[in-house]
Design brief:
Elements (H helix, E strand, L loop, with lengths): L10 E4 L5 H12 L3 E5 L3 E4 L2 E4 H13 L2 E5 L3 H16 L4 E4 L14 H29 L2 E6 L2 H5 L5 H21 L4 E9 L11 H4 L8 H7 L10 E5 L2 E5 L2 E2 L15 H6 L1 H4 L7 E2 L9 H12 L13
Parallel strand pairs: 1-2, 1-6, 2-5, 6-7, 7-8, 8-9
Antiparallel strand pairs: 3-4, 9-10, 11-12
Helix pairs in contact: 1-2, 1-8, 3-4, 4-6
The protein binds 1,4-dihydronicotinamide adenine dinucleotide (NAI).
Length: 321
């Protein structure tokens, strides 16, 4: 029908798609006509036979949908650029990039080695960088691109034992926000998702009765929606799990303006005295995240102009001894 979101002849790269969420995305794209690159360095063992995980998904795509797919076994962090080169050589374009590959090295921060910290950043953040960097110029030239960075609730909110993972996952959000701004004029839309789903990564971490509701097929619909050619959503973060789909955004409190003409008012004591106003989210909340544009400097200039117009108030909080 007219409302079908098809991906006919779109070239889609999903990293880490030999299993878990990536595999489910790949199958859904293939079903809707896309050409897929299935990247995964992992192996899968069936009946004591070991296969490249990516090969099995390529085979599944061909058998189930008579689809078009090629495999790649490179690690995203060391050879991410070659993954993009492979689709350019094969199909001459790259339309959709899903930065999905990931690992966990959980440990309380006190016990976490530097290697455990940097390895996780390398795969998630630097791996996403490598592919995105290579894809970017092609997307600009085509005047079309859709990119998803995979964040996590652990990145947005923090989680015990995941200092490395949280740093990487929040890094991916910042990375996406800047790319969204730089890519907008070339029709490159960049968003982040924070999913929760049943997979190898979570099967031993989340209780069974909860896992039951966390099917990965509940994550794919939003990923496909956000990467369709008709979707103009960018610079956004979505949290999704178990059939729930929501958006996350930054907020700035109403805040307190200190009149900048009087040096005396810029004191720690002034901050102490006005703490409740500085942190007041009840009134006049401003979304910090405009759809596709940066927070303009004029935004701050307006605040300063407003501040300068204020009469100096005695209760503003100058040093009180
Ligand atoms: P998964 O472990 O089933 O899949 C990840 C895949 O990435 C594996 O097949 C693995 O072999 C591959 N991979 C790992 N390192 C790689 C590398 N250097 N190069 C290429 N491939 C590599 O895990 P899942 O759950 O499907 O995770 C997908 C993404 O979603 C990850 O980025 C993860 O951090 C994120 N995520 C998952 C959540 C969940 O609840 N499952 C929660 C929040 C985020």
């Amino acid at each position: 029908t007219d409302t079908d979101l098809l991906f006919k002849d779109r070239v889609v790269v999903v990293t880490g798609s030999g299993g878990g969420l990536g595999r489910v995305y790949a199958l859904e794209y293939a079903k809707r006509g896309a050409k897929l690159l299935i990247n995964d360095l992992g192996k899968t063992t069936i009946n004591r036979q070991t296969y490249n995980a990516a090969d099995l998904v390529v085979k599944e795509i061909k058998e189930k949908f008579n689809g078009i797919a090629i495999a790649n076994y490179d690690s995203v962090d060391t050879r991410g650029d070659r993954i993009i080169e492979q689709v350019i050589n094969e199909w001459g374009r790259i339309d959709v990039l899903i930065n999905n590959a990931g690992i966990l090295r959980d440990k309380a921060f006190n016990n976490m080695t530097e290697k455990e910290f940097t390895n996780v950043l390398d795969v998630h953040l630097n791996g996403s960088y490598k592919l995105t960097k290579k894809a970017w110029s092609y997307m600009k030239e085509q005047n079309f691109g859709r990119i998803i960075n995979t964040s996590s609730p652990a990145g947005l909110f923090g989680n015990f034992g995941q200092a490395n993972y949280s740093a990487a996952k929040m890094g991916l959000v910042g990375f996406a926000e800047t790319l969204a701004k730089e890519g907008y004029k070339n029709n490159i839309m960049v968003n982040s998702i924070a999913p929760l789903a049943r997979s190898k990564m979570t099967e031993n971490v989340i209780p069974k009765h909860i896992l039951k509701n966390l099917g990965p097929e509940k994550i794919a619909p939003l990923v496909l929606y956000l990467t369709h050619e008709t979707t103009k959503v960018t610079n956004s973060i979505f949290e999704l799990a178990a059939g729930f789909y929501g958006q996350i955004r930054w907020e700035r409190s109403a805040g307190q303006i200190f009149n900048p003409t009087d040096e005396n008012y810029f004191t720690p004591e002034a901050i102490l005295n006005k703490w409740d106003d500085i942190t007041d989210f009840k009134t006049d909340i401003k979304p910090f995240n405009k759809k596709s544009h940066p927070v303009e400097l004029s935004d701050y200039n307006a605040l300063i102009t407003k501040a300068k117009a204020l009469p100096i108030q005695n209760d503003q909080g100058s040093l009180k001894i």
